[in-house]
Design a protein that fits this description.
433 residues; alpha/beta; Gyrase A, domain 2; Four Helix Bundle (Hemerythrin (Met), subunit A); Rossmann fold; seven-stranded mixed β-sheet; six-stranded mixed β-sheet; 13 strands; flat; binds guanosine-5'-triphosphate; binds magnesium ion
Length: 433
């Protein structure tokens, strides 16, 4: 990517909207804007000001739309460059023509994420914040939105920076020890700093799953014997009658999906056919499908009717399965503290079940940290090198420590970051961001 030439793109999504935004950034952006504008000359506007006028085709003088033109001046803009935004009516016809005249006037079509790339290159945000921009644009659930905004505000970057600083101090000490061996650091001190750093990195990694689920959503499967009350529980969780419920065992034959947002996570709840031994080929297909859905789910609710003798459990991924005892309003046939008692009829126990669901999905930390796949990889690298450093005598610790610092620095994109790393961040962006 060239670095300063004027780039332009439609910043609003395809389709019709009340308004649409075309962005233009780079050297000469104001001159270029002036060429396609009838109204107050944008070159005379201060940064942060706007004016009302018309976008025109300079070849014919034809007006393309009435619009607002916003001016931002370097370095006080999103990209850090001179930047102009045209707020037009949001039809594909208008936006396409505005883009065309800008291209004809000498701008180039921006690549994916090129505006944010320039912001990064110009020091307006670091690499973790650039990833937060992407996450914020793509956020569907409340939690994803909160995670991304916090990262954009710099919470994660500051945390990493502070960690780097402590390790840099230690590295400086160790290097001083090599140069002036008689004034060494206490070995204990180095170990404490490393252990604290390791705990912090592991704390972050512990939130990776919550972040992934918040960003990508989670699948929740309801599994259990026929008549256990799975469909009733699904309806109770949803708050409306989505699935058929009846006293006839085998009511649900195929699986059924319903969207549901809990704790800010977009969930898909999957109701399945009752699991039992059966000769009926159709029912057997339903059972096989139910067990496969359990295998692929992020979380399973194993649903058992507490008013009847306990059935033999089916094969389930128990490490991510919550056990639920239904029909808690009826006299119990057994007690088991590993099961959460609920009644879909009275609503009893539903809050406790939701609390358990929340902890199973988000962990005890609550999952407020955005972690991208790239960041998780870097943190895993940092963790490995930290563990390695802990096992080394102090005079050999330096090298491992440098590698820890390199992994941490790549999170914020400070120092020398491989071009491929940066490219990987921006390749996921859409054009116009
Ligand atoms: N008393 C009481 N009855 C319940 C409760 N939950 C479900 N039932 C009843 O149990 C029967 C079976 O409920 P469903 O929700 O259809 O059970 P299911 O597990 O989906 O059954 P299949 O689809 O056949 O596998 C129905 O008659 C429900 O009214 C509950 O909490 N209390
Ligand atoms: Mg059912």
């Amino acid at each position: 990517m060239r670095l300063r030439d004027p780039i332009c793109a439609i910043a609003t999504p395809p389709g019709k909207g009340a308004i649409g935004v075309v962005r233009l950034s780079g050297e000469g952006a104001l001159e270029l804007a002036a060429r396609v504008w009838r109204g107050k000359d944008p070159r005379g506007l201060k940064g942060g000001r706007f004016t009302f006028g018309e976008v025109v085709d300079p070849k014919t003088g034809e007006a393309l739309d009435q619009a607002l033109l916003l001016v931002f001046r370097a370095p006080r803009s999103y990209t850090g460059e001179d930047l102009v935004e045209f707020h037009t009516h949001g039809s594909p016809a208008v936006l396409r023509r505005v883009l065309e005249v800008l291209l004809e006037a000498g701008a180039r079509l921006a690549g994916p994420g090129e505006f944010t790339f320039r912001a990064y290159m110009n020091g307006k945000l670091d690499l973790a914040q650039a990833e937060a921009v992407l996450a914020l644009v793509e956020a569907e659930g409340e939690l994803a939105r909160r995670q991304a905004l916090r990262a954009l505000e710099g919470a994660f970057s500051r945390k990493i920076e502070a960690l780097e600083q402590r390790l840099l101090d230690l590295l400086a000490h160790i290097q001083a020890l090599l140069d002036y061996p008689e004034e060494g650091v206490e070995p204990l001190e180095a170990e404490r700093v490393l252990r604290e750093a390791l705990a912090e990195v592991e704390g972050l990694l512990g939130q990776a799953r919550a972040s992934r689920l918040a960003q990508k959503g989670a699948r929740l499967a309801l599994i259990g014997a026929p008549n256990a009350g799975k469909s009733s529980l699904l309806n109770a969780l949803l708050g409306y009658e989505r699935a058929l419920v009846s006293p006839i065992p085998g009511t649900t034959r195929d699986y059924l999906e319903a969207p549901l947002e809990l704790f800010g996570i977009p969930l898909v709840a999957v109701d399945t056919a009752g699991v039992r031994e059966t000769e009926d080929p159709l029912e057997r297909m339903g059972v096989e499908r139910a067990l496969r859905i359990a295998e692929e789910a992020d979380l399973v609710l194993y649903v058992v009717d507490r008013s009847l003798p306990k059935p033999a459990p089916p094969p389930l991924p128990w490490e991510r399965t919550l056990k639920v005892a239904t029909k808690a309003d009826l006299p119990p046939a057994w007690e088991d503290p590993a099961f959460i008692p609920v009644s879909s009829l009275t609503g009893e126990g539903l809050d406790r079940l939701k609390e358990a669901l929340k902890e199973a999905l988000l962990g005890k930390e609550g999952g407020e940290v955005l972690l991208t796949e790239r960041q998780v990889e870097a943190l895993l690298r940092a963790r490995e090198r930290l563990k390695e450093a802990l096992g080394l005598p102090q005079d050999l610790m330096g090298l491992a420590l440098e590698e820890v610092l390199e992994a941490l620095a790549s999170l914020r994109g400070e120092g020398r970051v491989a071009e491929a790393v940066v490219a990987r961040v921006f390749q996921n962006f859409c054009v116009g961001k």
